[in-house]
Amino acid sequence: FCKPGIFFDRDGVLLEDTNYLSKPEKVKLLPGAKDLLKISKELGWINIVITNQSGIGRGFYEWKEYELVTKKMLTEFGEPNCIDAIYANGEKPSDKPIPKSWRKPSPNMIFEAASTLNIDLTNSIIIGDRLTDLLSGEKAGINKFVHVLTGHGINERKLIIDKFNNKNYLSLIKNLTEFPVKSLLPKLN
H/E element holding 173? Predict the structure, then answer.
Protein backbone atom coordinates (compact mmCIF):
# COMPACT_ATOMS: atom_id res chain seq x y z
CA PHE A 1 0.00 0.00 0.00
CA CYS A 2 1.57 3.27 -1.18
CA LYS A 3 0.97 6.43 0.81
CA PRO A 4 1.66 9.95 -0.38
CA GLY A 5 4.42 12.00 1.16
CA ILE A 6 5.27 15.60 1.75
CA PHE A 7 8.73 16.52 0.52
CA PHE A 8 10.14 19.49 2.43
CA ASP A 9 13.19 21.50 1.48
CA ARG A 10 15.18 22.19 4.66
CA ASP A 11 16.84 25.63 4.57
CA GLY A 12 14.31 28.36 3.92
CA VAL A 13 11.30 26.09 4.46
CA LEU A 14 11.72 24.23 7.75
CA LEU A 15 14.76 26.13 9.04
CA GLU A 16 15.82 29.74 8.77
CA ASP A 17 18.27 30.00 5.87
CA THR A 18 21.56 31.33 7.24
CA ASN A 19 23.65 30.72 4.09
CA TYR A 20 25.52 27.43 4.45
CA LEU A 21 24.10 26.43 7.83
CA SER A 22 26.87 24.51 9.57
CA LYS A 23 26.58 25.45 13.25
CA PRO A 24 23.94 23.77 15.44
CA GLU A 25 23.50 26.93 17.52
CA LYS A 26 22.22 28.72 14.38
CA VAL A 27 19.35 26.24 13.86
CA LYS A 28 16.04 28.09 14.08
CA LEU A 29 12.70 26.58 13.09
CA LEU A 30 10.57 28.67 10.79
CA PRO A 31 6.97 29.53 11.73
CA GLY A 32 4.55 26.66 11.22
CA ALA A 33 7.18 24.00 10.53
CA LYS A 34 6.77 22.03 13.74
CA ASP A 35 2.95 22.19 13.64
CA LEU A 36 2.69 21.16 9.97
CA LEU A 37 4.97 18.14 10.46
CA LYS A 38 2.89 17.05 13.45
CA ILE A 39 -0.46 17.54 11.68
CA SER A 40 0.63 15.74 8.51
CA LYS A 41 1.99 12.82 10.54
CA GLU A 42 -1.26 12.56 12.53
CA LEU A 43 -3.16 12.45 9.21
CA GLY A 44 -1.02 9.53 8.02
CA TRP A 45 1.34 11.31 5.62
CA ILE A 46 5.03 10.48 5.20
CA ASN A 47 7.30 13.48 5.91
CA ILE A 48 10.59 13.60 4.01
CA VAL A 49 13.28 16.29 4.00
CA ILE A 50 15.29 16.69 0.78
CA THR A 51 18.16 19.13 0.93
CA ASN A 52 20.99 20.37 -1.25
CA GLN A 53 24.05 21.04 0.91
CA SER A 54 26.46 22.55 -1.60
CA GLY A 55 28.53 24.00 1.27
CA ILE A 56 30.01 20.50 1.62
CA GLY A 57 31.06 20.32 -2.04
CA ARG A 58 32.36 23.86 -1.88
CA GLY A 59 34.50 23.00 1.16
CA PHE A 60 32.73 25.40 3.57
CA TYR A 61 31.91 22.58 6.02
CA GLU A 62 31.94 18.78 6.20
CA TRP A 63 29.38 16.04 6.67
CA LYS A 64 30.07 15.96 10.41
CA GLU A 65 28.89 19.59 10.72
CA TYR A 66 25.83 18.76 8.62
CA GLU A 67 25.06 15.86 10.98
CA LEU A 68 25.33 18.11 14.06
CA VAL A 69 22.92 20.58 12.47
CA THR A 70 20.55 17.71 11.64
CA LYS A 71 20.65 16.42 15.22
CA LYS A 72 19.91 19.91 16.52
CA MET A 73 17.02 20.28 14.05
CA LEU A 74 15.51 16.97 15.19
CA THR A 75 15.89 18.04 18.83
CA GLU A 76 14.12 21.32 18.06
CA PHE A 77 11.23 19.46 16.43
CA GLY A 78 10.95 17.37 19.60
CA GLU A 79 9.18 14.12 20.29
CA PRO A 80 7.52 12.35 18.74
CA ASN A 81 9.80 12.71 15.73
CA CYS A 82 7.54 13.52 12.79
CA ILE A 83 10.24 13.29 10.08
CA ASP A 84 10.32 9.87 8.43
CA ALA A 85 13.50 10.37 6.39
CA ILE A 86 16.09 12.94 5.41
CA TYR A 87 17.94 12.87 2.08
CA ALA A 88 20.87 15.22 1.52
CA ASN A 89 23.56 15.71 -1.07
CA GLY A 90 26.78 17.65 -0.83
CA GLU A 91 27.17 18.35 -4.53
CA LYS A 92 28.10 21.85 -5.63
CA PRO A 93 26.46 23.33 -8.72
CA SER A 94 27.92 22.16 -12.02
CA ASP A 95 27.65 23.46 -15.57
CA LYS A 96 27.57 19.89 -16.87
CA PRO A 97 24.86 17.34 -16.07
CA ILE A 98 26.13 14.75 -13.60
CA PRO A 99 24.70 11.26 -14.12
CA LYS A 100 22.86 9.96 -11.04
CA SER A 101 23.21 13.37 -9.33
CA TRP A 102 21.07 13.93 -6.26
CA ARG A 103 21.35 17.72 -6.50
CA LYS A 104 17.99 19.39 -7.04
CA PRO A 105 16.50 19.98 -9.58
CA SER A 106 17.34 16.30 -10.08
CA PRO A 107 14.47 14.12 -8.84
CA ASN A 108 16.82 11.39 -7.60
CA MET A 109 16.47 12.10 -3.86
CA ILE A 110 12.70 11.92 -4.30
CA PHE A 111 12.95 8.70 -6.31
CA GLU A 112 15.16 7.15 -3.63
CA ALA A 113 12.68 8.10 -0.90
CA ALA A 114 9.74 6.82 -2.94
CA SER A 115 11.46 3.49 -3.51
CA THR A 116 12.62 3.07 0.09
CA LEU A 117 9.42 4.27 1.78
CA ASN A 118 6.87 3.04 -0.80
CA ILE A 119 5.57 6.54 -1.56
CA ASP A 120 2.82 7.39 -4.04
CA LEU A 121 4.43 10.32 -5.86
CA THR A 122 1.37 11.22 -7.93
CA ASN A 123 -0.53 12.22 -4.79
CA SER A 124 2.47 13.67 -2.95
CA ILE A 125 3.30 17.32 -2.26
CA ILE A 126 6.56 19.25 -2.57
CA ILE A 127 7.24 22.40 -0.55
CA GLY A 128 10.12 24.69 -1.40
CA ASP A 129 11.45 28.22 -1.45
CA ARG A 130 13.38 27.79 -4.72
CA LEU A 131 12.51 26.93 -8.28
CA THR A 132 14.91 23.96 -8.14
CA ASP A 133 12.88 22.46 -5.27
CA LEU A 134 9.65 22.47 -7.25
CA LEU A 135 11.36 21.37 -10.48
CA SER A 136 12.70 18.27 -8.71
CA GLY A 137 9.16 17.44 -7.63
CA GLU A 138 7.78 18.00 -11.13
CA LYS A 139 10.46 15.74 -12.64
CA ALA A 140 9.54 13.05 -10.09
CA GLY A 141 5.87 13.15 -11.09
CA ILE A 142 4.55 15.16 -8.14
CA ASN A 143 1.55 17.31 -9.07
CA LYS A 144 1.05 19.49 -5.98
CA PHE A 145 3.47 22.36 -5.46
CA VAL A 146 3.72 24.72 -2.49
CA HIS A 147 5.98 27.77 -2.61
CA VAL A 148 6.90 29.74 0.51
CA LEU A 149 8.25 33.28 0.69
CA THR A 150 10.69 32.36 3.46
CA GLY A 151 14.34 31.69 2.61
CA HIS A 152 14.94 32.56 -1.04
CA GLY A 153 11.22 32.50 -1.77
CA ILE A 154 10.72 36.23 -2.05
CA ASN A 155 13.38 36.40 -4.80
CA GLU A 156 12.05 33.34 -6.63
CA ARG A 157 8.27 33.90 -6.46
CA LYS A 158 8.01 35.36 -9.97
CA LEU A 159 10.00 32.44 -11.43
CA ILE A 160 7.67 30.02 -9.63
CA ILE A 161 4.53 31.74 -10.91
CA ASP A 162 5.90 31.87 -14.47
CA LYS A 163 6.82 28.16 -14.44
CA PHE A 164 4.05 26.57 -12.34
CA ASN A 165 0.96 28.76 -12.62
CA ASN A 166 -0.60 26.46 -15.21
CA LYS A 167 0.04 23.31 -13.14
CA ASN A 168 -2.61 21.19 -11.43
CA TYR A 169 -1.98 22.67 -8.04
CA LEU A 170 0.22 25.56 -7.01
CA SER A 171 -0.18 27.10 -3.58
CA LEU A 172 1.62 30.38 -2.88
CA ILE A 173 1.98 31.01 0.84
CA LYS A 174 3.99 33.30 3.10
CA ASN A 175 5.24 30.53 5.39
CA LEU A 176 4.12 27.14 6.68
CA THR A 177 1.58 28.67 9.07
CA GLU A 178 -0.51 29.36 5.93
CA PHE A 179 -0.28 25.80 4.56
CA PRO A 180 -3.75 24.81 3.25
CA VAL A 181 -4.23 21.74 5.47
CA LYS A 182 -7.96 21.31 4.75
CA SER A 183 -7.59 21.33 0.96
CA LEU A 184 -4.25 19.51 0.63
CA LEU A 185 -4.06 16.99 3.46
CA PRO A 186 -6.88 14.48 3.58
CA LYS A 187 -6.68 11.98 6.45
CA LEU A 188 -5.07 8.77 5.16
CA ASN A 189 -5.45 6.41 8.14
Answer: strand 169-173
9 catalytic? Reply is yes
- Of the pLDDT bands very low, low, confident and very high (cuts 50, 70, 90), residue 189 is low
Q: What is the DSSP string of 35-91?
A: HHHHHHHHTTPEEEEEEE-HHHHTTSS-HHHHHHHHHHHHHHH-SSP---EEEEE-P
pLDDT the model gives residue 188 = 82
What average pLDDT does the segment 2-20 reach?
A: 96
Q: In 3D, which of 169, 108, 177, 166 has the Cα closest to residue 139?
A: 108
| Residue 11 annotated as catalytic | yes
- The per-residue pLDDT for 187 is 85
Cβ pair 104, 135 in contact under 8 A = yes
pTM (2 d.p.): 0.96
Annotated catalytic residue within 11, 17, 84, 129: 11
3-state secondary structure of 128: strand
Q: Look at residue 164 in the predicted model and tell me its pLDDT.
A: 86
